[in-house]
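Need a sequence for this fold. Nothing fancy.
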């Protein structure tokens, strides 16, 4: 058996399809984000980052950095193990209390990432509910899909944000069957929003639990940053809210918030929680400072929304193929993996502008795109530089394509 040939063939397929992923070698510059340094053949080169999920630049915020430095010197680097054995620090307890309060829930539970929180919570919920059927939006994140699969439950996929299709599926399941509806608030590739209240109406009608992934919305929306459910005043109707500390909050980690019995069940039964070393107190301290700050400050949210609106307007004025988005996410459609990577490569090499191409399986084939996430510190000058570069590169590639034809 030629194992090397099998592995090489798998990599070759990605190259042939134009979706082999190349990770940029980068260091952000503290205090001047979105400026960063990219490392390559000729040493570090200054670049502007346009695709970070640190949406509000909280990973650079002085209060967050100071809290992490203080924790490092007072507590040390590591957590000491799993939460059960030695890693249940007082900082973990404080952060869970803040997250429960953020979403108006009785409790919260920390995980090492948003992926782990989804996989662990959904798989455990399914195993605890005998004969449960899980209804999943077709655009749900890979971590949700993995959790549902691991649960062993019957899964029924409804068309994206299609309430009629969801209700039709709910009608087909006996009333006494346990049911769970899993969906997201902000879908990060298209930037659209779920009708949370209407989904909760269906859940009430058919006695289903609801599981809402708010990872691209926590910190970003609502008077205290509780997400779209906070903004729309429906958080109290959602059974379980899942979020991340690695995007708008700028640090690392994931969590769920729910009533105390559900939290206790996940804490007690989920292998992804029980057997994993807990987050470092340094990270927890930074996340705690970030959550507390964004609960009482709208400055960052307002500046980010203004930046997103400005970039959308500039893309439209320039005639660039922007996908309509109701949120802070600004997708530019390319519809070809090879072309998307080529545009990204040129922008970085010639203009010092970094945006990562988004290809299958993150998005369906034929819908490849560049996904821009303007933040509160992206200036008008930066936007002008980006738009001018995009217009030139798109025009250049169109000329090359016509000449090749």
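Here you go.
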């Amino acid at each position: 058996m030629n194992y090397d040939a099998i592995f090489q063939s798998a990599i070759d397929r990605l190259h042939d399809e134009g979706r082999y992923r190349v990770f940029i070698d980068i260091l952000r510059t503290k205090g001047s984000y979105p400026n960063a340094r990219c490392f390559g053949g000729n040493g570090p080169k200054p670049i502007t980052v346009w695709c970070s999920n640190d949406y509000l630049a909280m990973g650079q915020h002085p209060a967050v950095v100071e809290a992490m430095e203080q924790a490092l010197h007072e507590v040390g680097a590591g957590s000491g193990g799993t939460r059960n054995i030695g890693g249940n620090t007082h900082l973990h307890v404080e952060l869970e209390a803040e997250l429960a309060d953020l979403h108006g829930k009785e409790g919260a539970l920390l995980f090492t990432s948003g992926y782990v929180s989804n996989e662990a919570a959904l798989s455990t919920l399914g195993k605890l509910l005998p004969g449960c059927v899980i209804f999943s939006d077709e655009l749900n994140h890979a971590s949700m899909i993995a959790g549902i699969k691991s649960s062993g439950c019957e899964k029924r996929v409804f068309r994206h944000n299609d309430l009629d299709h969801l209700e039709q599926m709910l009608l087909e399941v006996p009333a006494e069957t346990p049911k769970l509806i899993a969906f997201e608030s902000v879908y990060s590739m298209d930037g659209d929003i779920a009708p949370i209240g209407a989904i909760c109406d269906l859940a009430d009608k058919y006695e289903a639990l609801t599981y809402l992934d708010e990872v691209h919305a926590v910190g970003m929306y609502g008077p205290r940053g509780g997400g779209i459910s906070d903004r729309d005043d429906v958080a109290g109707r959602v059974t379980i809210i899942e979020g991340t500390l690695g995007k708008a909050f700028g640090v690392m980690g994931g969590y769920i918030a729910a009533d105390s019995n559900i939290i206790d069940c996940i804490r007690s039964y989920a292998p992804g929680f029980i057997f994993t070393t807990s987050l470092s107190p340094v990270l927890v301290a930074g996340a705690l400072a970030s959550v507390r700050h964004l609960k009482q400050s709208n400055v960052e949210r307002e500046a980010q929304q203004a930046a997103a609106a400005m970039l959308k307007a500039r893309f439209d004025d320039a005639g660039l193929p922007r996908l309509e988005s109701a949120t802070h996410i600004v997708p530019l459609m390319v519809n070809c993996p090879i072309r998307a990577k080529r545009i990204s490569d040129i922008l970085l090499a010639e203009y010092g502008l970094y945006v990562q191409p988004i290809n299958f399986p993150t998005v369906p084939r034929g819908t490849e795109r560049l996904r821009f996430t303007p933040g509160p510190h992206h200036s008008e000058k930066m936007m002008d530089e980006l738009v001018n570069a995009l217009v030139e590169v798109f025009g250049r590639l169109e000329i090359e394509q016509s000449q090749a034809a």
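For context: The radius of gyration is 22 Å.
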